[in-house]
Amino acid sequence: MLYLFLEYAYMKHVYLDNAATTQVHPNVIAKMQDALGTYGNPSSTHSFGRTAKTAIESARKTIAKYINAQPSEIIFTSGGTEADNMIIRCAVRDLGVKTIITSRIEHHAVLHTVEELEQKAAIQLLYVDLDVYGNPDLAHLETLLQKDDSKKLVSLMHVNNEIGNKIDLEEITFLSKKYGALVHSDTVQSLGHYNWDVKAFPIDFLAAAAHKFHGPKGIGFAFIRKNSGLSCMISGGSQERGLRAGTESFHNIVGLEEAFIHAYENLEAEKKYVEELKSYFIAQVKSTIPNAKFNGHSGDMDKSTYTLVNVCLPITEDKAMLLLFNLDMKGIACSKGSACQSGSDAGSHVLTQILSAEDMKKPSVRFSFSTYNTKEDIDYTIGVIKDIIEA
């Protein structure tokens, strides 16, 4: 037992699951620790409460500034899942949405929500066709938008969390607006990683989560365009402009603000660094494991996010069953798909839509990067995978 403990203690540890969650930045931790000393309820009118309220409104203004929104358009939530649920459910309830257009490779925060609305609220649910890489067919999207005169909501994620495809959200928004549709995007994998200007194109709703850009878990926000007409999903007090009742998670909001500042003040330098890591990973896979395939557009630096790749590995079925276990035993953290799917034997609903039956029998692994990773991490990981294949 002591031998195993010492072996683990001295093992190289490589974290390549940043699409699931990221390491919290030290500055964020320090800010949150300080914030825990501010214990007033932000809704209280005394000085203790006003101190907390002022900090929350400062965070709201900071986030709004970086995406060129109005502070009143930023609503703090517990994360991306709540933001997606709030927007989609309230659009149906408050805005007269009768038809939702989405794709079959959205995050389950969207898919399970719209499926439930189809069953319980008699919503017409339409899926846009995808090409072989997993990109939405815009001609088919236009056909769906023209289908009837019902009020429509288009919900398509900007960056796919499993295969990294990056869609042209501006083009989709303008196309949807041509037919009077509302537009929502799960931008959990892209806010904090790309520059945004919500005044440049008329998107109605966005969702974000702090833990995807080195902030704390349990906090995120919804961008809800001013005068949208949405009302609260969680009833109670009048917090968050009346759109989300409940005492604000003050320390988490302060942590979100600090993470957002760091992400955007260092965006270009960190983006360049991570792009180089991904490029290096792709090159090493191609040279070391030539029969490997990159799923979706994840192997294309121009058509996918710079933060992740999804690789179909040429491994026999018996080795595939223990692949993630064996990688973990070597100190390598990665994912076979969304972290929300952990423990599920159902397989990836994303890959099911784009891979052949033959490739679905092989293991596909998502590796996702951050500035805390190095080329040495990649060399080690590729070497371990090569050893597993050749064993």
Query: What is the alpha-carbon Rg in Å?
Result: 22 Å
Give the uncertain stretches in residue-range form.
none
Which percent range fits the helix content? 40-55%
- What's the total count of β strands? 12
Strand content: 5-15%
Task: Give the number of domains.
Answer: 2
Biggest sheet, in brief?
7 strands, mixed
Outline the structure in words.
It comes from Maribacter stanieri. Belongs to the class-V pyridoxal-phosphate-dependent aminotransferase family. NifS/IscS subfamily. It holds the Pfam family Aminotran_5. The radius of gyration is 22 Å and the shape is globular. The chain is 42% helix and 12% strand. The chain is α/β, with parallel strands linked by helices and 391 residues long. The strands form three sheets. A seven-stranded mixed β-sheet has the order 2-8-7-6-5-3-4, with helices on both faces. A three-stranded antiparallel β-sheet has the order 9-10-12, with no helix packed on it. The chain has helices at 2-10, 26-35, 47-67, 80-95, 108-120, 138-145, 169-178, 250-265, 267-288, 317-321, 323-329, 349-354, 357-360, 375-390; strands spanning 14-15, 74-77, 99-102, 124-127, 152-155, 182-186, 205-209, 220-224, 293-294, 308-312, 332-333, 364-368.
